[in-house]
Amino acid sequence: MGRFWAEVLGWGVSSEGPGVTNVEPEGFVYPDPVAVCIDVLAVPEPKTVKNRVHLDLATTSAAHQADLIARLEDLGATPADVGQGNVPWTVLADPEGNEFCVLEPRSNYRDTGPIAAVVVDCTDPRAMAGFWGEAMDWTLHEVTDDHAVLRSAKGVGPYLEFLRTPGVKTVKNRIHLDLRPYLDDDLAAEVARLRAIGATDVDLGQGDVPWTVLADPEGNEFCVLTPR
């Protein structure tokens, strides 16, 4: 899976430990917001339902969109029907069935890099924007009853988007966000701050680990990593 996504994005692959594949741009230096990096983790559970978190990939022209779709299918992606109907974007699934979209050219994604957005299904985009707007140092660009959009305050990298969708979360998300406090921040204080704005503790069987697992107001799990 790590190799697949590295080929898709044109990024490099490394590993910080057994069962973990890290995918990030060559030469990337954290915390540069120009990219949201991907960690692929080995887990025992198979995928059973449509993911509530997925990636949207950006394209620059109709030809680029068509070429990218063809290349992705050569790499092992397959068409996916999530009830999208007749839309200008294409929904695919990676080799383990995780859905993602290849968007038609859009001007607002012209400078995001290969990942246009991390998209989260939800029932209340306004509430989610309120929580995540406080949780992260990102800027809220747009919020309605149907969707909300955030991006790094530096105006670079992909967007974080919340889309109102039917249905509710029923199983652990296979794709989740990791938050990492900055080097001079205090991990315990940051976790306490997130709890105070609406995060709740989650036990996924993680045991004694240096990070903290929390959930947002709609139950989406996320991890708070050690500062770096």
UniProtKB/TrEMBL annotation:
InterPro entries: Glyas_Bleomycin-R_OHBP_Dase (IPR029068), Glyoxalase_6 (IPR041581), VOC_core (IPR037523)
Pfam families on file: Glyoxalase_6
Coiled coil regions, renumbered to chain: none
Cross-referenced SUPFAM superfamilies: Glyoxalase/Bleomycin resistance protein/Dihydroxybiphenyl dioxygenase
Domain VOC, residue spans: 114-227
Superkingdom, natural source: Bacteria
Protein name, per record: VOC domain-containing protein
